[in-house]
Structures
1.
Amino acid sequence: MAQIFSARTDRRLRRLLLALPVLFIVLLALGFYQFRSSAHWGVGGTADQPIGFRHDIHVSELGLDCGFCHTGAEHEAAAGMPSASTCLVCHSQVWRGVEALRPLFTSIELDQPIEWKSLYRLPGHTRFHHGAHAASGVACAACHGDVATMVKTEKAEPMSMAWCLDCHRQVGERRQRKRIEALFSLGHTRESGSRRRPQVNPASPLFEARQEQRDSRFRGSDGSKALAAEDIAFASPRLTDCSTCHY
Amino acid sequence: MGGDTPGTLWRGIEELTADRIEALLEAEFPVLHQMGTMDRRDLIRLMGASLALAGLTACEQRKPPLLSQPSSPEGQAADKPLYFATSLGLDGYGRGVLVKSHDGRPIKVEGNPLHPASLGATDVFMQAEILSIYDPDRSRTPRLGSEPRPWSALRRFLAAQRMEMTADGGEGTHILIGATSSPTVAGLIERLRARYPAMRFHSYSPISDPLASPELIYRFDHVDTVLSLGADFLGAGPAQVRYARDWKAARPRLIVVESSPTLTSARADERLPLAPHEIEMLAAELAAGQGPPSIVQALAGTPGRAMVIAGRDQPPAVHALAYRINERLGAFGNGIVAVAPVRIAEGIEPLDALVAAMAAGRMRRLAILDCNPAYDAPADLAFDTLAARVPATLHLGISHDETARVCRWHAPQRHVLESWGDLRAYDGTVGLQQPATVPLVPGLSTIELLAFFAGERPDGRALVRRQWNGLSEADWMRALEAGVVSGTEAEAIDPVSPSPTRPIQYGAMTLTFQPDARLWDGRFANNAWLQELPSPLTKLVWGNAALIAPATAASLEVETGDIVEIAHRGATVKAPVWVMPGQAPGVVTLSLGYGRPSAGRVGSEIGTNAFRLRAADTPWAAHDVQVRKVPGNGRLISTQRHQPIADSGAIRTVEADAPEEQPSLYPEFPSLGHAWGMVIDLDACIGCGACTIACQAENNIPVVGPDEVERGREMHWIRVDRYHQGPAEAPETHFQPVPCMHCEKAPCEVVCPVGATVHSAEGLNQMVYNRCIGTRTCSNNCPYKVRRFNWFDYQSKAPATPAPANNPRVTVRDRGVMEKCTYCVQRINAARADAAVEGRDIRESDVHTACQQVCPTDAIAFGDLNDPNSKVSRLRRSGRNYALLGNLNTRPRTTYLARRRRRT
């Protein structure tokens, strides 16, 4: 009986078989590279908005503070967008009648909100509290870039989970280190002032007392370590807990 | 470990009989009993399809826009909830609440700490109002007959009627209002009467007599001994929350005499199951100074600090006897205060007078506002046939219900969370009602309709303001913010002995009625949260049953699930039997509110309609009924044996003075920051189920429907297990709320193949929905059986919760995902963010879990175990503290306080 495949076809098939896994790995690597790239997350991207708002004029030239328009930025969960009436505080006088500002008046007349396209909207399963980040000392520019110079607002950072975690890990480790130092040299710290205490709220005596009560669990009665520093470090990765952002 | 468990705990009566193994198997794997067989080809086809479609969920791209609102009101921010103080009615009495509204949508009800009937806690009905406002079956347009009509047509009809009434002075015009205590309604009635002198007003409630005078208020913190003659003061009712709080604070010795077990008798120190005629005999003996020595001694042992409460379902004779005993005990002025009627009664006639006028055929017009007599009036009045004969009838109601169907015109009513108004609490304190949202459906409130008749502008706010024009603008704003008008309690008056009526003809078998713990009188029948809430004692869902004592069931030769036909004065109903431990022999009990012909898509034709056997002269008991077994099997769905726990000592009891807890030999779980923990006091828990439904509202927990519950797939994150102990004729009853234990050594975490359930630094057992692939291994490994799996897309299939009712701070879970109690992590994180913004640590008062916040008896404590001064730490050090299945060393963060032993 004759062979079904010739020797040449057989060779080709063998090569193809070999190439398939290689191709798979290459595609996977490409996909991974693409997923990690800024382009995938739209960094540098802009959006066409109902009003061609310019941050550079309002912030750099007029010197408006971020919180003037984004009133929730420092205290609320959402930074918020200015209402049409906030814009009209000035624009009922300045640039009145300009076609580009038409949506402001339409909004008031029809009692309908203006819909802006969001560059920074996080996916629905992620919870974010703007005020808590601002209160922890994260500067606006750390996430939003140098908005003051942007003619058209662009996305400055990828807002990926990896990007969030980079920061949460760093801050967590820093706090952890400070905490452990403070914990095991408390006598020293007390005498030398508040330099080494965790920076959350140094003012409140209640806070201090309660911290002390908790920390005593980890010290022997003579002030020696009851638990290894690693145990404690392991015990407090709160900033990278899943339920910090997902619940 | 505090306490011990004398005797065996059992959940279902089957466990006491021979087929114990079979019963346990069915309880553990309810699905195995009904699982059909699947063809191999079908299986492969399904697997292929689900594989192909698995990736599609990732294709969805939704990015909601950022919104610039036209204007920015002060104090409001996007994503920040607002709270509105208002009052919710039950049987005409108000209960104060704070309604949490997110972006204009009411999403949660909390108790109003300033309101005397709430004190910050709620019952199940208050929680469920959130679902009612979004009910898709709400009436949306006026109707003539069953045909929808525009509002202009209704307005023309009303204007024509008003002209005719002006001409005839309201002759032949009757207005029937569901029992209410609203001062604004009272003011409107007065103005209507001035305008139409011949107009007649009626008030009606299927649960109580709204015209009773005086009303009795009980103060459990003023007594040491309470004898209840069928009074279920810890069960559902307008003062349940307050009475439960007072009872818990004082813990008087409680003796309960009753026909069918209630929440009150589950907490009694002594309980006597007696048939209604035996209760009357016992009351007569006690009034004569005789009777069982234990009761006589208990009442006499605390002079001036004892009282007798006769239940709403007792005949006037028992009320008169209770009055005599109370007078002798000196209870009036101490434990019992008689007050002037809280609900509107002056110049109001009862339903009987309305029926008599209808039967006489002289009625020209009838308006029925906010009640449903065509369904819940005593059957022998034949209200529906008589009402159909009145020439002009108008019904104002929230849905197109049974009464709407016998009236010519129907007008949609505004939901209480959309309307202005006022209601008085059980003690008379006035609570204002204000809308928490713009009307979702165009409608009229009761006061607006009455105002239209009175020729006033139907503007709810103006009407209520006019009623309270004695208040200055500042006081009015303060009252609106607080939800109560201070200094408006009902005045105390002299108690009056109820007049005993002619003696009742008792028979061999008595049928008694109870308002349902979930549906009340049927008004909540279309509320899926309440339909799926297990009934506190039977754990029945989606239906009711005829409760029969074990001995009576044996003599009738029936078992749980059999059908009986109950006949009384020519009317019959068929109901499935539930053999009820602790039921008095010779008494059949049916709960009201089921079997509604037209409640809506959720609640129509579920269960047995007990109103069909109800008579006007003896509304709470049908004497001498005939009960016989008929062929067939009823479908009873009970969760009583679902999620069993392999702990024979699940419920522990201690002597009153328990020793401090011994230190543990195990090392502590290291935790630097906060260590969240929960302690549930079984001695305070009354088993009402408010925690279950509050958790459902807070955490977007889906309703799964009767079929799925039957398979053991109910989704409640906190269930209340009910255990019995002792003989089935008179058992002790225990309740145990079981949420996720948040074990420090959690068995679920180690078995998850994808790390979807992991531990947080603060001790939360976290569930990461996006990682979960639905292997359900965690649930299998959980000894407490607290994990719930989304077998289907429960959130989008009927009877799903409408999306606007969902809490935006909690993820809505998809199909194929495991979920469970999170210790309300969204509340912890919100408190943490607020603390960070204010630059301080989280305070103990900042975090309350949803179940903790609503608990009427404060049985649930939640807080930081690392803070030795927190309430939860203090309770943990108590000698009553014990862990469920503590021998497994899972180190649960949720622990229990043992029940104190009964005082005999």
2.
Amino acid sequence: MSRGQKILLIVLGSLVVGGIIYLAGLYSRLQRVQPSSMEPQLNNFPAVSEPLESASGEAVRVRLFRISAAVPGTLEPTEVTLHLPSDPAHQARLLIEALASTGPLQQRPLPPSTRVLEAYALPNGLVVVDFAPSLLSDFPAGILSEQLAVESLLETLGANLPSLRALKILVGGQEATTLAGHIDLTSAYRLTEGEAPQASLWLGPH
Amino acid sequence: MLCYDATEVYKPVRFGIPSSLIASVILFSSLALYPALLHPVGGNLPQTSPESQGATRTIVLDAPHGGSDPGARWPGGVTEKELVLNLTAAVAQRLQGSGYRVMLTRHSDVDLSFDERAALANGTPHAVFVTLHVGSAPPDGSVFVFYYSFGQIADAPATLTGLTLWTEAQRQWAGYSQRLAQLLQAEFQRTLQASPELPTAAAIYQLRLIAAPAVAVEIETRRPEIVPGLVGTISETLVRSLQAFQSFLSQPPPS
């Protein structure tokens, strides 16, 4: 073997070793990215799909965040009594259906036709709620309406279900890009634990 | 019959080095360089970074909805897609008169995808993106300004091999967008007093895709006939806010 060939083989060997190290690094980065802490583990947990009327359980006072009549464009908490079972997924479903079906029409953040098909609560605190497709078609158009709806869900679930940390919204069993053309549904949202809306939200004229 | 010896191609061709080895070196060199090719500044978004954003003289003005998507609807068959198409054209004319270069996402009744609208903004250096909406939520006659907030998002940022993913484009611009939204909202509140004082953080999907300062402006009214009368207010508010925004571009964004 000539000297040139030996040099070439050494260079080639170095490239192979470098390539292997790079691929190993790439693989470890993939491993870090893929198992997101909020990733659904749907196979292990049963869905809740019983209708609202079948709910039974302890009567508890809950806070529903509805659209404020006094200060338009904001939410306000209202206390109501609901019979809630012990399962957080079932509780989330009942709270969401109460937001859509109770209270004055103008103050409901969700259309009255809103129906939850299924709800899953995962051990990591993520609740996955699957809405019927009528949610998309019946939703009042506008960024503000959609924003108030999502904010209401986050506030209401956060205020009443401390074991839950995040909400992922599905529509018709699938991920939707937006709620009704504006608000992002491709990601899960952090629940806001019933705190006042974030500082950047309008708190009304003073 | 003319025959070739298959081994001929493997004979040493230069300096005693077999051509197969040369081919291997080229192949491995390409593989080694591949990651570097995928790591340009700004990832796959071929434009300016926040640090290099200079004076903003270009506005990408988005008329949302269109085609089969009417957006909001009012009695009498008035649709948001028509209102915003006329509104953006009129505002663009005013802004051009003030020395701005304006690019409209649509000029006719067509339904563009979120990606198509974002592509126009992301391919335009030193631009700001403003999407103009009309809704019918109370308070009537108000204007709400929105910016994208990743703070509400529970998912971990999706990054891989240093690329900026299309859906993460707004992340590095979020602070600037918030500042622009604050300036716009304050100006709107001065002229249309039913408007809030502070902008609203909202996870608007369209804004998430924009690699530039990006805001959504929504006029709330039950009387769509007032919208054409707001052209002057919106144009002047945009001009004043963008002038004030220039001074922020040289500062680090708020956390």
3.
Amino acid sequence: MGGLSEISIIEVKALTKIFNGKVRAVDEISFDVKEGEILGFLGPNGAGKTTTLNMLSTLLRPTSGTATVNGCDILAEPDAVRRSIGYVFQDPTLDLELTGRENLDFHGRIYGLKRDVRQQRIKELLELVQLTDRADDLVKTYSGGMKRRLEIARGLLHHPRVLFLDEPTLGLDPQTRRSIWEHIQRLNQNKNVTIILTTHYTEEADYLCGRILIIDFGKVVALDTPDELKARLEGDVVSLAFSDPGAIGKIRPILEKRDWVRRIELVASGNTYATMSRMMQMMRGMSGGVGMGGMMPGMNSGGIESGGKMPKHVQQMLAQGMPSENGHSDPDGGSKRMNLLVDDGGHRIPEIVKLITDAGVVLESVELHKPTLDDVFLSVTGRNIRDERGSLVEMMRRHRIVQQARGRRVRG
Amino acid sequence: MVQPLSGQAIYVVLLRELKRYWRAKARIISSVAQSLFFLAIFGLGLGGFIGRFGNISYLSYLAPGIIGMGLLFGSVFSGVSVIFDRQFGFMKEMLVAPVSRTSIIIGKILGGAATASIQGIILMLVAGIMGAFTPTIALVVGAVVAVGVMLLITAGFVGLGVAIGSTLNDFHAFQLLSTFVMWPLFMLSGVFFPIDVVPFPLQVAMLFDPMFYGVELLRWCLLGAGSSVLGPLGWLISLGVVSGFNALMVSLGTYLFSRAQV
């Protein structure tokens, strides 16, 4: 972290956004961002990450609470706030009918940069993101990665003190992702730009961020450095996989009694399709008209969460992604994996295997690893972030979110 | 809702509109051609049947109305394109900039007015070549005045388009807009027939069509004072109505745009 200081460049106080009078997308969150740091918002889709950024960038008016950015209040001085920030949105916001250079030029002009400054910076930034040779082609001919790089370059053109990056590498190939990470680090170090990025890739948050804010259902559930977060999960993670779905029910009470087992977490089964079809049945049963056909197109990332009119168990299932998690819905729900957090995991494995074998349960595999951010996420939210990505369940939830945002009836 | 205006922001949004217009050659050609089909087929076809209209040909009578049609469609759609800006995300890029929404929308309105008026100028030249206007010194002066009139008319209708585009967030509303707003405005503007030959209810409807006054003004510019059905001071009345409509629609569009969620 180049010039990390103790000065707060962003101060957020009880910021809240309620959509349509009932959907709490962001629920009284408070935190500070230090000047020069890279802060990551980690959370599943719809957790409230984008909504928070939209409020901090003055695009969206908070329902209550407030924040200051670079010393300016987001409610009282929106223009001053917007002058000190750059925002690279999650969805593309380029004008496809203009060239790359013209897109940058538009930005430079609207931020009031003088001609020579503008041209100089455009030249530099095009080189930085390696688009110099394509600068005069229409953006509609660019690849996804090129568009993303152009947007990041554009976000920097006016030398913002704070840069918001909303899912900067979503949908990019590993190579492009890596090069964008390097750009982001270089910017942070060389230009001392404070960066807030949202992501649902734990490895991205781990690699880039000085501190990570885990956000779930619009609330801050953890805020610390990646190392501190991982250190909270003292011990090692032992992952067990079983071939029989009933195994966990048998083995869990046995393991729970051991004092060296700090906690047990069930990992959602990979069988998303089965869960989906079960959910579809339930949905059909209650609404009589939510078909798959209607939910594929037009998904968009609303930052809205929870609070509909569905029966409790369906809501819970939608919210949690999987039915069998934490044991508090369907006990035979098909989870075949569990994570144990244990002290000195390597030496406990033989004992664990023995306990399982004695119980007459067939073990499929055992894995041992140090806690990762994935484990941290699972422990603070009770969900596995990997299952939140692009699964059918997630699509289902987004569909519901979009429907709610549009004020249509989801339920008959 | 008073917001500070930024000349630079207005200019850059206007510049974008012009660039995009100039790049969409196919759109320019097709909309000019559409207007010309009306002019050629109705002007020459129906004109042969109707004969002369007082002291002018039917083609001459029709030409200012067809120019008006180009202005009307061009400007309303230009205003409604705020929907597309929102859909394709570019709106966010404009709204997160440290300039007022008023500056952005004024740039948009000026840009839409400029591009629709360019369309009108092209149509005016082509109609002139087709022999719709009597070539005199007065015509040259009239044509110059007509350009000013075009900007005035189109700015109002871009404002209407922006107001509609800021309220409806849906592509599908386009068809409705076209059928229930654009076509009635066009058909009732006195393009094809003068107001004094139609039944009373239709006359009333025409008098409520702001485009009717726009076409009156264009006729006055291009065909001379004798062409007005509103009497010798017809131009003044029309200018008043068009200016009032303009002020109303630009304010309404600006207001609704400023309020709209991203």
